[in-house]
Amino acid sequence: MSNFKVDITGINTSNLKALSHRQNMELFQKMQNGDKHAKDELINGNLKLVLSILKRFNKKNVNLDDLFQVGVVGLIKAIDNFDLSYNLKLSTYGVPLIVGEIKKYLRDNNTPLRVSRSTKDNAYQILRFKEDYINMHGKEPSSTEISQALGISEYMVGFALDSLKIPTSISEPIFNDGGDTIYLEDQIADKKDLNTDKDMLISLHKAFHKINNREQNLLIDRFVIGKTQSEIASKLNISQAQVSRIEKNALSKLRKLIK
């Protein structure tokens, strides 16, 4: 962190404390035992983890205050769903969730991510080569020809050229003759095998009614209503670890029943 300073409005980031693995585990134990302040301590003691992740993303045209808040949402989800029985560090479990929340926010808000200089250089080299090749041969070169001529992989050829494209929203209007507007999302086909989906739903419905009521209610709370394991533990007056075990057993039963 010493080489990367993030300025967040209203927060002196240099004074943020960072909890050790042992301290985190102690607070998780307290949280499971009903300590209402333990969760706040876990959040505040791991904000530096969120800050460290922000350096992966381009600061230009991105409001770091917003990005930080989104990252904290990911941290809270990691804390709510953390399972002590796996013997993991919070950072190991939390980083993918924090990064996922930030990427989802950037994607949903159509915020462009920075394209690396090397990728841009490759893209413009490819464009120059294609122009010269067309002038000489009267046709476009293949990806293999570009790859061999420039000494880069065919994957990188496609990746570099894609980096120059401007993303289009699926809500972009593509046709309007004075009547109803047709949007890009209207033209995107769903190529799923609908019969397979129906068969899976029927199998899942039958399997769901073969697990006990407690498992059914827990899965509904978790995956339909969207409650955290901590919230369910509080509702059932059991520990988060017990909720986690019940959830895993229920999912394992469902997988076996629908095979």
Short synopsis of the structure:
The protein has helices spanning 21-32, 38-44, 47-54, 64-81, 90-108, 117-137, 143-150, 154-162, 194-208, 213-225, 229-236, 240-258; strands spanning 173-175, 182-183. With 259 residues, the chain is mostly helical.
Protein traits:
3 domains; Four Helix Bundle (Hemerythrin (Met), subunit A); mainly alpha; 259 residues; Arc Repressor Mutant, subunit A; 12 helices; flat; two-stranded antiparallel sheet
Written overview of the protein:
- With 259 residues, this protein is mainly alpha-helical.
- The chain has three domains: 13-108, Four Helix Bundle (Hemerythrin (Met), subunit A); 117-187, Winged helix-like DNA-binding domain superfamily/Winged helix DNA-binding domain (Arc Repressor Mutant, subunit A, Orthogonal Bundle); 210-258, Orthogonal Bundle (Arc Repressor Mutant, subunit A).
- It is 61% helix and 2% strand.
- It has twelve helices and two strands, in the order ααααααααββαααα.
- The protein has helices at 21-32, 38-44, 47-54, 64-81, 90-108, 117-137, 143-150, 154-162, 194-208, 213-225, 229-236, 240-258; strands at residues 173-175, 182-183.
- Strands 1-2 form a two-stranded antiparallel ribbon.
- Helix 6 packs across helix 8 (154-162), helix 7 (143-150) crosses helix 8 (154-162) and helix 9 (194-208) crosses helix 12 (240-258).
- The longest helix has 21 residues, at 117-137.
- The radius of gyration is 25 Å and the shape is flat.
- The relative contact order is 0.08.
- The mean pLDDT is 79.
